[in-house]
Amino acid sequence: MINVIIAITLSCWFHIVFSVPVEIMCEELKAVSTEVNTLTGDTLTLSYNYNKITYQDYFYWYKQDPGKAPEFLIYHRASGSLVEAAVDGLKINVKTNQLQMIISSAALSHSAVYYCAVRPTVTANTQSLYNNLTAAHSH
């Protein structure tokens, strides 16, 4: 049995990176289930609801193994089209108000905490946000 924890995060991703207290409120990107269990070899689907999806949004997925820093997995547009993938074998599905990352053949190595973060393209300070994303993504 594979146990996967789905973290509820959005802009809190940056708070985790920079060790700011987690009590800070995030936008409404919510894990459909906070824990997913599956058998080795089965399809594993990690889902987030986000009722503010616009075509301008970009979504980043990360995996965090116990005792390690989060690792970048995949980055995609709101349409579901991939921009960059650091790991092969992952698929993205975007439904109305829901994002899914699909792992076709679950393995014990997939047991971890997963994060999904959104980068809205319109914010008060887009340059600062972009710099934070770039810095977090390059580590």
Give the helix/strand layout:
Layout: E1 2-6, H1 12-17, E2 29-31, E3 35-38, E4 44-50, E5 58-64, E6 71-77, E7 82-85, E8 90-95, E9 98-103, E10 113-119, H2 126-138
Summarize this, please?
It contains two helices and ten strands, in the order βαβββββββββα.
Structural descriptors:
signal, globular, adaptive immunity, immunoglobulin domain, Immunoglobulin V-set domain-containing protein, Immunoglobulin-like, mainly beta, six-stranded mixed sheet, 10 strands, about 140 residues, immunity, four-stranded antiparallel sheet
Low-confidence parts lasting 5 or more residues at pLDDT below 50?
Answer: 6-26, 121-127
How many structurally independent domains?
1
Shape: globular
Q: What top-tier CATH class fits best? A: Mainly Beta
Biggest sheet strand order reads 3-1-10-5-6-7
- How far the N terminus sits from the C terminus, by CA atoms, comes to 31 Å
For the secondary structure, the number of strands is 10
Radius of gyration: 14 Å
In sequence order, what are the helices and strands, one letter per element? EHEEEEEEEEEH
Write out the CATH superfamily name: Immunoglobulins
